[in-house]
Specification:
Layout lengths: L2 E2 L1 H6 L5 E5 L3 H4 L8 E2 L6 H9 L6 E5 L20 E4 L2 H8 L4 H16 L3 H14 L8 E5 L4 H15 L6 E8 L4 H14 L3 E5 L2 H5 L6 H19 L4 E3 L4 H15 L8 E3 L7 E3 L7 H10 L12 H4 L9 H17 L3 H8 L10 E4 L2 E4 L1 H4 L3
Parallel strand pairs: 1-5, 2-3, 2-4, 4-5, 6-7, 6-9, 7-8, 9-11
Antiparallel strand pairs: 10-11, 12-13
Helix pairs in contact: 4-8, 11-14
Length: 384
């Protein structure tokens, strides 16, 4: 399929073309180009055909994916054979990067983002961040924390919140903003670097070959990738003198994990606010966004007109949204939708799911596991 650049697109009258986002639901949640319609080319072909046929024949079709690779390879679809079609060069990421070119724009973005944390979003973002740090004792005197940045909205905001809380100087601690490049596409890495520069985050980048290592894995590559990434992060952080790594999991991740454990894993467990590493002595994992709602993170992102990656791996065109705990986008998105449906009837459902992990009544639990040892209610039943 013939390519068209963003500059060429902008020169075309808007009423002469239709902009089509071909990515799946997991990716479009993180943003679309203005005026675009979503037609996911992973849907059944008859569904795709019907949506394409609804677009007037006299309009050019400009298709875009994440990085401009997949949209070039759609000539075989019958619904496109008699249409004037183009693939947008560099895709959605190219569109994002086009807004991050001028140094003056970068400085303005940084100032606006920081001011919005201190004022407009103080109660929604900084307050729960600081509360989690205090309640769960996540930051201690003399800590050296590796703030792990994946390129997504959560880890980028976490970095800015760490910078803000450090200014308060209630506790003396050091920060290293750590980015691991496990084999990103050059476009994805460039976007991470551009966003870090725009937000004033002095990142330290190191490279690994994780993506190559899991490239041929057919079963659960995302899970293996996540485990390997965490190991590399621990190792590099310890090498740099850090005693903690901070990950960007938020409140919604926590409650989704609780439900997913029950629905898909037949277990009751939660994502803990902090953990001691079992493989790296003296290292600890912390989750300072533990009490921050995803909707508020999105509101901050959109207010500041920021654009981030959801998944920066080179499987993005086929794998889309892998989560940091290794779960795939489909299960997590399904769970997210379930919670949204439940919330329509009960506005407190999210808080109730979260608090359920603080109110476990062991007298009514048939069995549980602690420190690797299984326990059963019958063990002490006759002692009552």
């Amino acid at each position: 399929m013939e390519e068209i650049t963003l500059e060429e697109l902008y020169k075309m009258p808007k009423d002469t073309y239709s902009l089509i986002d071909i990515r799946d639901e997991g990716l479009i949640l993180y943003g679309m180009m203005p005026g675009a319609v979503n037609i996911c080319f992973d849907d059944p072909e008859d569904v795709i055909n019907k949506k394409i046929e609804a677009i007037p024949k006299d309009k050019k079709l400009v298709l875009y994916c994440e990085i401009g690779r997949r949209s070039r390879e759609l000539e075989d679809y019958s619904c496109l054979s008699d249409r004037d079609c183009y693939s947008l060069k560099d895709g959605y990421i190219g569109y994002i990067r086009s807004g991050l070119t001028k140094e003056t724009d970068l400085e303005e973005k940084k100032k606006k983002a920081e001011e919005s944390i201190r004022k407009r979003f103080h109660k929604k973002l900084f307050s729960p961040f600081a509360r989690a740090c205090k309640n769960y004792q996540l930051i201690n005197e003399g800590d050296h924390i590796a703030v792990c940045i994946s390129g997504g909205k959560d880890s980028m905001l976490m970095a800015k919140l760490f910078q803000e809380i450090q200014k308060h100087k209630k506790v003396n601690f050091e920060l290293t903003f750590l980015v691991m490049d496990p084999g990103y596409n050059k476009e994805n890495r460039a976007l991470i670097e551009s966003n870090a520069k725009a937000l004033g985050i002095p990142i330290t980048i190191f490279e690994s070959d994780i993506f190559d290592a899991v490239d041929t894995i057919e079963k659960s590559p995302c899970y293996l990738c996540a485990r390997m990434r965490r190991g590399y992060l621990y190792s590099k952080a310890k090498e740099l003198g850090c005693n903690k790594i901070a990950l960007g999991h938020h409140f919604d991740d926590v409650i989704e994990t609780i439900l997913m454990g029950m629905l898909y894993g037949a277990q009751v467990q939660t994502m803990m606010p902090k953990l001691h590493s079992t493989n790296f002595e003296g290292m600890e994992l912390i989750r300072p966004l533990y009490l921050v709602r995803e909707s508020d993170i999105c509101a901050w992102r959109d207010y500041n007109e920021l654009h981030f990656l959801q998944c920066a791996c080179h499987f993005t065109e086929t794998c889309t949204t892998c989560h940091e705990d290794g779960t795939t986008s489909s299960k997590r998105l399904e769970t997210k939708k379930l919670i949204a449906e439940l919330k329509k009837e009960n506005p407190f459902v999210e808080a109730n799911i979260f608090r359920s992990m603080e109110n476990v009544n062991l007298d009514t639990v048939i069995g549980y596991k602690q420190k690797g040892k299984r326990h059963n209610f019958l063990d002490t039943y006759e002692d009552i």
